[in-house]
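hiii so um. not sure if this is the right channel but i have a protein structure encoded as tokens and i wanna go backwards to a sequence. like what aa goes where. can anyone help
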């Protein structure tokens, strides 16, 4: 009985049961069984060795690395590992692989398409991407390299960067890693040779710094001796965090730009990491992991897959932080009080380690962590944290509407984790969350004037968005901001050998090379409540098209070549419509996704609620009263808070009949804009999509005056 109860979180209910079920008002309610704190974990089915090999090779190919694919053709990483020879200089008995556990490798259900095979057509997304491309091209490479050259005793006359990339800051170097990742992803997304050339030149200069620093492979913007403080328990900077960004950037340049020197530099760094960590007893290594270390386990696991060297996976497992991961694997939430974005990359690493080892520990930890954060610790926008921390117990956010909520890095990383989990099960809950966070947080961050990112997306009623001054903001969210808009095609489409999943509804085009099929998505979503998919193929092709029916679309409908698809069968929200047929060139599918007004209470206070239209969080336009125009931009994350307060209206409408007192604004210049009618206290308000509201005060969560309903 308990097992059936747990699996109900993932399995679609029969139609007769759905008709008797009260419609959930939030993702949390939809995916959390009544009376259970969190949904159960779905065990992935095992597959035989040939299927494991096929799926693993397909995963390698999806990364877009021809070199990795060639190496993968002959062998598969075993589970967990075969013993590998130590690196030169390794101390004895410190690098031996763990004995085999016998866990089969998981077979991925859905494979992501490489960025190069997804073409963005939506004009607003293209604008955001091009702003990022122009910014990457404008950044001064010598300034980015300054701290690396100084640390390697190489000459540099460049002006140092500011804040977290200043010469004395303990984070220095991390932004360069984000820059490299963004360059690699941008080249894959656009094919722009200028950005590839800039990345290649940066790698060549980093190689000079690495060579100057010695023969162990160390490369950083700060002295290696700083690690002594970390290992001895003395106050230290986030050293591993910064190294992770650099290593991840090198891997992205190698994979997307096919740069062999980037792999050479990265493998040198990985050899140093193995030497440095391999000397430490387990207890001492675990103590170092109490300091933020980014996604070290993830990048080392990815390197293991890219090179087919299982030893890197041994090193990756040294960064398993058991004080946090063990409770999660056991289904226990111990996150309260912890720094949020320190934790998320640990579970991205766990997800990647599960894919390469098959060990259930990693799967269980990653899935439980995701559900606790996405469903029980996130705001209506999909973002999480207050002052960078999980400050309260799960489902207790009502007291946390502050000016320093939702660090943007957190959502960047939650989308990465969601991406992994979707490939395991292709469960609609992951697509639903991805859409919510992408639309209402990621797209809500760049200032439309020039694409400048922000750090916190505050939920304090009456505040405004504060962006970084271009060329003066080098914080973590500036780095992930570069990446967010250099890989916009990620998460849109997935496939297996005979199926293709459509998860996001933006004008775009995907090239399914194995099938010789291109699918073009034509839509003005979200301004248009639907989409049209056009099949382009030189010869008839048999495959299944899986179209996500979002949680918010209660009356979705489909037509294939103008004829209704299963006309008498309701398309269930939070599911996939599966169209099996032999597709011919010019076939098309029209998908209607009617949107309607809805409200979602914040966990902990039934009188405090946000208003949505379909997937869109609507924010109140509160004007510029006492808004300091000098505070629209900042060069410091701490200036993202401390807003002068204003009186924010309350709402007195019936939440069960929103359409009676929230009316659309009849203006072609303001699509998806609404206003309240006679329900504002003391005045009515205009509501517009949060992702496009800038340069004025706003409110997302509204206090409902009594009576709340009726």
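sure thing!! here u go:
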């Amino acid at each position: 009985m308990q097992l059936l109860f747990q699996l109900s979180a993932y399995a679609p209910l029969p139609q007769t049961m759905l008709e008797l079920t009260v419609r959930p008002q939030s993702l949390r309610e939809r995916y959390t069984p009544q009376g259970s704190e969190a949904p159960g974990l779905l065990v992935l089915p095992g597959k035989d060795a040939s299927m494991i090999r096929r799926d693993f090779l397909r995963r390698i190919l999806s990364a877009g690395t021809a070199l990795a694919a060639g190496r993968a053709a002959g062998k598969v990483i075993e589970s967990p590992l075969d013993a590998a020879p130590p690196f030169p200089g390794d101390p004895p008995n410190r690098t031996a692989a763990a004995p085999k556990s016998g866990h089969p490798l998981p077979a991925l259900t859905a494979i992501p398409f490489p960025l190069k095979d997804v073409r963005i057509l939506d004009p607003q997304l293209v604008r955001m991407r091009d702003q990022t491309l122009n910014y990457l091209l404008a950044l001064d490479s010598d300034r980015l390299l300054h701290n690396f050259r100084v640390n390697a005793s190489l000459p540099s006359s460049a002006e140092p960067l500011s804040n977290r990339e200043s010469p004395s800051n303990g984070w220095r170097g991390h932004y360069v890693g984000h820059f490299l990742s963004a360059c690699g992803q941008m080249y894959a997304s656009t094919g722009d040779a200028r950005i590839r050339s800039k990345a290649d030149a940066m790698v060549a200069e980093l190689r000079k710094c690495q060579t100057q620093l010695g023969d162990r492979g160390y490369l950083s913007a700060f002295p290696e001796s700083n690690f002594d403080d970390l290992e001895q328990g003395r106050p230290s900077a986030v050293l591993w965090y910064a190294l992770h960004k650099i290593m991840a950037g090198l891997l992205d340049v190698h994979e997307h730009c096919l740069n062999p020197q980037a792999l050479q530099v990265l493998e040198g760094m990985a050899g140093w990491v193995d030497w440095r960590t391999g000397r430490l007893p387990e207890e001492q290594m675990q103590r170092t992991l109490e300091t933020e270390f980014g996604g070290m386990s993830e990048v080392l696991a990815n390197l293991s897959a890219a090179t087919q060297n299982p030893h890197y996976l041994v090193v990756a497992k040294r960064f398993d932080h058991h004080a946090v991961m063990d409770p999660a694997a056991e289904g226990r939430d111990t996150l309260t009080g912890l720094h949020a974005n320190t934790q998320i990359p640990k579970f991205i690493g766990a997800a990647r380690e599960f894919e390469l080892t098959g060990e259930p520990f990693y799967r269980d930890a990653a899935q439980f962590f995701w559900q606790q954060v996405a469903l029980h610790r996130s705001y209506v926008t999909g973002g999480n944290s207050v002052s960078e921390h999980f400050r309260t117990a799960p489902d207790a956010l009502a007291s946390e509407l502050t000016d320093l909520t939702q660090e943007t890095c957190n959502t960047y990383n939650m989308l990465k984790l969601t991406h992994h989990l979707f490939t395991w099960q292709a469960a609609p809950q992951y697509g639903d969350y991805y859409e919510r966070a992408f639309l209402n947080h990621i797209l809500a961050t760049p200032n439309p004037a020039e694409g400048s990112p922000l750090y916190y997306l505050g939920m304090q009623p009456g505040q405004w968005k504060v962006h970084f001054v271009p060329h003066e903001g080098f914080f973590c969210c500036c780095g992930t901001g570069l990446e967010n808009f250099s890989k916009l095609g990620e998460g849109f489409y997935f496939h297996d050998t005979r199926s293709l999943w459509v998860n996001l509804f933006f004008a775009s085009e995907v090239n399914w090379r194995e099938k010789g099929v291109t699918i073009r998505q034509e839509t003005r979503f979200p301004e248009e409540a639907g989409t049209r998919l056009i099949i382009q193929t030189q010869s008839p092709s048999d495959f299944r098209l899986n179209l996500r029916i979002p949680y918010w679309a209660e009356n979705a409908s489909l037509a294939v070549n103008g004829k209704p698809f299963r006309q008498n069968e309701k398309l269930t929200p939070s599911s996939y419509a599966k169209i099996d047929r032999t597709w011919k060139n010019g076939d098309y599918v029209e998908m209607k996704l009617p949107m309607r007004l809805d409200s979602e209470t914040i966990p902990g206070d039934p009188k405090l609620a946000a208003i949505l239209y379909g997937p869109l969080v609507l924010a109140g336009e509160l004007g510029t009263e006492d808004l300091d125009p000098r505070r629209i931009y900042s060069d410091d994350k701490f200036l993202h808070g401390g807003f002068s307060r204003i009186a924010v209206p309350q709402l007195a409408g019936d939440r069960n009949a929103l359409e009676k007192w929230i009316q659309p604004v009849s203006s072609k210049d303001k699509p998806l804009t609404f206003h309240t009618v006679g329900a504002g206290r003391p005045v009515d308000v205009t509501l517009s999509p949060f992702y496009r509201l800038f340069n004025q005060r706003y409110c997302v969560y509204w206090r409902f005056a009594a009576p709340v309903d009726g």
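oh and The radius of gyration is 25 Å.
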